[in-house]
Amino acid sequence: MKLNDKDKTIRDTCVGNPFKELNDFAMGMDLQSMTEIDHKHVPYVVILIKALKIFKDKFNRNPNNNQADKKAFKEIIISMKKYQDEENFEQAISFIYDVTKDYLDVLIEFKFIIKNFSK
């Protein structure tokens, strides 16, 4: 979902809590056995979902919106890369906020935008 007005944008890629079909799709991709071309075309959302599972397995919790967790999550994504020039992994890194954001803050932003849209 993407909701925006002139001043604000809220994006929810469902990464922090993916619906079953999205999770099954992401977890069903075997990154290790892919060709170079296929690996470079894995959607960044799939990379984030797979990295989230690794983070949860390692730390037994979801990542928080703090520098330490963002750094650990970024390192997981980097460790998943097989080739130097994989823009999809760089894109995943740029969307780490989607995984670490506080959904209460998103709800507050969403209500703010909805309120302003109705004016």
Could you explain the architecture of this structure?
The protein is mostly helical and 119 residues long. It has one domain (2-117). Helices cover 58% and strands 5% of the residues. The chain has helices at 20-27, 36-39, 44-59, 67-80, 87-94, 97-100, 103-117; strands at residues 2-4, 9-11. A two-stranded antiparallel sheet has the order 1-2. A hairpin with a 4-residue loop joins strand 1 and strand 2 (9-11). It is globular and about 45 Å long.
* Unreliable stretches: 1-5
Largest sheet: 2 strands, antiparallel
Spatial strand sequence of the major β-sheet = 1-2
- Bin the strand percentage: 5-15%
Residue share in helix = 55-70%
Alpha-beta content class: mainly alpha
Estimate nothing, just give the exact number of structural domains: 1
Name its key features:
mainly alpha; single chain; 119 residues; 58% helix; 7 helices; two-stranded antiparallel ribbon; globular
Helices, strands, pairings?
Elements: E1 2-4, E2 9-11, H1 20-27, H2 36-39, H3 44-59, H4 67-80, H5 87-94, H6 97-100, H7 103-117
Helix pairs in contact: 1-3, 3-4, 3-5
Give a quick rundown of the structure:
With 119 residues, the chain is mainly alpha-helical. The chain has seven helices and two strands.
